[in-house]
Protein: Alginate lyase
Organism: Seonamhaeicola maritimus
Amino acid sequence: MKKFFLLVLVASFIVSCNNNSVKSGVLVTDISELNASIEKAQPGDIITLANGVWKDVEIKFKAEGAVNKPITINVETPGEVFIEGVSSLKFGGNYLVVDGLHFRNGYSPDEAVVIFRIDKETIANHCTFTNSVIEDFNKMSRDDSDRWIQFWGRHNTLSNCYITGKTNRGPTIRVDLKGNEHISNYHQIVNNHFGPRPPKGGASGETIQIGDSYSSMSPSYTMVANNLFEECNGEVEIISSKTNFNEFRNNVFYKSEGSLVTRHGNYCTIDGNYFIGDGENENIGGIRIINTGHWVTNNYFFNLKGKSFRSPLAVMNGIPKSPLNRYNQVTDVVVAYNTYINCDAPWQFGVGQNLAQKDVLPASEIRSARPLRTIVANNVLYNEVGAEKLVVEHDKADGVIFKSNVVNNQGVPFNDYDGGIQNVSFDLSEVGENILVQASNLDVEAYKGFEFEKISKDLFGNSRNSNNSIGAVVNTNASSPSILDKSKYGPSWYSDEVEASEAKTIEVTDGDNLQEKIDEASNGDIILLKDGVLNVNKSLVISKGITIKAENVSKTSLNYSGEANTPLFELHPKGFLIVESVNLKGNGTQQAFASLKENMYTHFGLSVSNCEITDFNFALKAYKQSFAERITIENTSISNCNNGLELSEETNDRGDYNTEYLTIINCKFNNVNENVIDYYRGGYDESTIGGNLILTNSTFTNCGGKEQNGILINTRGIVNVDISDNTFKNNPIKLVALLWGAKNNSHANNTISNSGKIVVEENLKLKLMY
Amino acid sequence: MKKFFLLVLVASFIVSCNNNSVKSGVLVTDISELNASIEKAQPGDIITLANGVWKDVEIKFKAEGAVNKPITINVETPGEVFIEGVSSLKFGGNYLVVDGLHFRNGYSPDEAVVIFRIDKETIANHCTFTNSVIEDFNKMSRDDSDRWIQFWGRHNTLSNCYITGKTNRGPTIRVDLKGNEHISNYHQIVNNHFGPRPPKGGASGETIQIGDSYSSMSPSYTMVANNLFEECNGEVEIISSKTNFNEFRNNVFYKSEGSLVTRHGNYCTIDGNYFIGDGENENIGGIRIINTGHWVTNNYFFNLKGKSFRSPLAVMNGIPKSPLNRYNQVTDVVVAYNTYINCDAPWQFGVGQNLAQKDVLPASEIRSARPLRTIVANNVLYNEVGAEKLVVEHDKADGVIFKSNVVNNQGVPFNDYDGGIQNVSFDLSEVGENILVQASNLDVEAYKGFEFEKISKDLFGNSRNSNNSIGAVVNTNASSPSILDKSKYGPSWYSDEVEASEAKTIEVTDGDNLQEKIDEASNGDIILLKDGVLNVNKSLVISKGITIKAENVSKTSLNYSGEANTPLFELHPKGFLIVESVNLKGNGTQQAFASLKENMYTHFGLSVSNCEITDFNFALKAYKQSFAERITIENTSISNCNNGLELSEETNDRGDYNTEYLTIINCKFNNVNENVIDYYRGGYDESTIGGNLILTNSTFTNCGGKEQNGILINTRGIVNVDISDNTFKNNPIKLVALLWGAKNNSHANNTISNSGKIVVEENLKLKLMY
């Protein structure tokens, strides 16, 4: 079926005709009609996808539009055309536009969901993917790598899209420059809303990566502007710029756990961006600088508490004569006219200095080359609580010049770097949500560095020609743009805001129909178990957010009689399970909780409180490639189990691990034979700040008797570990824990009797990832 | 004395006013007058240096000219103003011109002779050094490094200069990019005549170096165009391009022993250059490619016989993830529309592949990364004698695509790379001296690679738009520019051509006045010794080119009675000595020949034939930092000496050595105790192709008895060694020679009896230089 009709253009194209007149188009209802239409498309043509779900479609948009006469694929009604299943979109040719798609419930069979080439010979130029959504379009397993948008060619655009939920390996967006057809590409990534990307639990979780070390010598000229990055927490780099002459302008980084990093490549411009923290989360970073000639100007940093790699401005040490894929020395960087509000010690130099590790790392991994010819000038700092240090020198900042910077540090003294940072008392004025600037222009003459006259506008775009001032904002009367107004970003037809619905409570008294009730429940609902024993003989599948709780503590048991090596609770992708006040009992051969063995295409989560877990083979078994952002066990006992919490399957030593936060508070472990807590991250990777264990106020008795590695609490490779206020008693084990001194591992106030000891090793030897 | 006068401008400035009208200027006669005039100079002013020698002047030209109104320093009469002694010129400011100087008989006290900045803050921009000469302005010793022209800042020009004779360490010209003030500099190096630069005997003898590995990420945009490079033999790199976006256009490389090398940095343009060889000398190279994105187009290669590093087109293997200062992989290189006449196998890929050395070198020195995405298209080859191979694969050329290339290989079969090199019979036509092109356009369709349409002109500047053809030249009727017409290069007032004068012969009968007669002689004259014994009691100083010969072989002796450890002949800089048919006799404590111990600010040379050298401590002693391009000993005997030919003082292992060519033919060595022949180059340096020993038809008897290293002919580190047709008899030594198999070391037809043996070690372990 094919019908011709008149289509009124209402969508706003980035590449569009100047006249929004009525155009004739063609409505297509399946892939073969689409292919036929593409094949005969002429400049100016519009092909419209009919409403509905397009399943398993691999669209190859190969055509030739023209300047001001693109060929466009759009949708009958924005928001009513869904691309699902095994699907992808490839552009090949010139002046092509795709507008209004919604990718969901599926994954790409290819290197990416949207690809700006069809094959090596058929490359896209001047093509646009706009006004569309891609959500949760993950491959079936975390290690199955892809991107969602893969740029090739030149002058292509990603605009006004909403993109969220990538959990598998690979940057959400990658620009590829391998080949002369792809350099000096002037791609535009503009006006998009990058919604939450949860922590990946290892490297290769960037939101945008531009090039790679192998193309790091190439000019890219990619523009990333006016985007909102919201909770882009995939890994330590939100944007990894790896090529030359890229520009990052007027983006908003909102509560995103990571940084904009000039990882490779040189001479990038980072101007007029907003980095907004919450005043607490130390994972929310700013800008991390490596390499030569970057200009960091007119940026605004608010409430950031990140340190070292994640500090508001982290300027790294390089490796002398660095290998191509490691850390070049920083030189010729300009940091000027930025404003830092409540960022404590925003400037950190020599980040990554690791001379102490020279016995465990090869010389080609030692970052000892300090920044050179770097200037920090005309910046404004305000700390509502004065900081002892404004500049942290991980290595000497002797190649950095400070000029005409001003701080209100509330009178707390600081190193002023030969007068380069002046103490000035000034007030702030709030000119917008999260935007505080000095209340009036500061009477400090701006330093005129080489080519500083090219910094001609301020954060809000106002001219600096007259009445210039230091700091990111010149005209303190100006009102700021509403940077968190989400209607400014992403598709015109889509909102990510979900209306909160009241949670339902579903009562269950019988184990036999528990699964049925779980299936009936909606995301966020509560299954309420009555007092008594419920017998369960088959794994309970959890694939949504659900709470299972008993009315009273210790009055309700789930007795599991399923097969050996099957879990009572089988945690599927998107299975976020809260269990409260229920006793879980097995027959010694099964698992209380386990992920799927495969196809964990997105995260699970687990919270257990006020429970007793007894007689299982494993209390928790996380299989390889499964990942939970948080696993929390509180006020719970685990006893008579062969294994405890087993999160150590990521043994490929590529930096991956099974959970970001493992939190164990006020728990009791009795008679757990091995893998009592086994939490592993392998591979030396200085920039992934991975894994967090909090273990407090807990008691371990008669545990670890069969532990082959001789360590009760095994945390090898985990970066943040806090073991405190616990009691270890009568555990027949060599070590209670082996901690990594160089990282954020600590122990305190533990009572240890008739057990092993806690040992801290400063520099653990790990397999190099690079 | 200061006089004001009217000055008629006749010199052609690169940056000049449009009207060549009469201008008022000031004539200055000494440095204080010059300084005073500079201090008050205004845009458009001209300061004229009075004729004569300006000795020990350090000119700091700090002033502010304006667009089209430069401030100029020129000379009263071109060719009559000489800068001598300890002198230099520094520019600081904008729009300054220096025109007509002649630097000679001296050296700079600074990093360079001409420097485009006065200090770190006072940098030159839009300044020009033009129409001038710098000759032999060497520092006093070879290791005392400098440049002659040091570029800083932006938009500076070196034009129409004649520059020759640099022998000390350091590139003749260097462009420095360290600091944002110096990047994207658009310097112009144009219309110069680079006269002979003799081999330096080690690294750091480039004629032009643009940047270094530490600034190799920076954009430079330096233009090197329309220059003549004549016998620029300083080292293996004539031009070492180490930054990005440089352009090399329409230069002539005439019998220059080296190559244009893209050593670091990327995306350079090498277009329309001429590489002219002599059909024999294998040291004359072409273009050597490292890194990414270079375009090699419209170049003409004639009679080049270089191989490997010195081949007409050498595309290197890289080191995987190379350290910054080593070898990046070649990618995305275009080699199109070039013409190669009589270059045998002009295309060599994987040059520098050294997998065989992986046992003696660290992994970070192994070049195993083959070129990627490289295209060789639309080139024309002609071999008057067909070559077996047109392409030499030092490693597999599997990342190289050949398209639409044509060869006339005289019917000799060759690998055609899937039809990418076609066999076509065609004739040549001579369109200029050394310029032969295909007699008519070839009927082969040009391959249209990505952006090949940008190759819009041919070698002679003719359009390729219509009637395009493969090869460097489109219009076979066009006459070529007279590329070797020296009046097109260098200063208008200077010629490097010296009128040959008839050599004088001066007869000498008495040793006492021998030095006097040598001093009287002119360069090239002959001192003729009569039969008999001449007694010499003081070293004879040789500081010019001179021949000392006897009328009859074996009839004349020089008996030396000078002090111990002094030489009979003391070879000073520019001392080029030929000794023929004279017997030299010492008392066992002195040297027959020796260089100065220090201040060897330029080369010496030595040729000895038909002589007998007896009873010296050393036959020849070359001190550290002395260098001879050639030392030749023929038909001569050396006997009863403690040491023979000692050329092994360059022990700093930076790749230096004491002579380029050591040639020993038909000589006899008897009773020479140690250092019989000791010729050393230290330091691993794969690209310096350094040192040449030819030892043939000679006899060694009873030699080496005191040799501590156990090697009779010690050639450690020397790259080219040929030991053949010699006789070694009764030498109490372990090894006659230890040869370096991986390099060009060979031995043949030697008769060895009761002596050591000759051993070949494939890979010598040397100290790494980098």
Remarks:
- The interface with chain A takes residues 178-181, 183, 213-214, 217-219, 244, 266-267, 291-293, 321-326, 328-329, 331-332, 334, 364, 373, 450-451, 770 of chain B (CB under 8 Å).
- Residues 296 and 451 of chain B are 13 Å apart (CA to CA).
- The mean pLDDT of chain B is 93.
- Residues 648-770 of chain B form one domain.
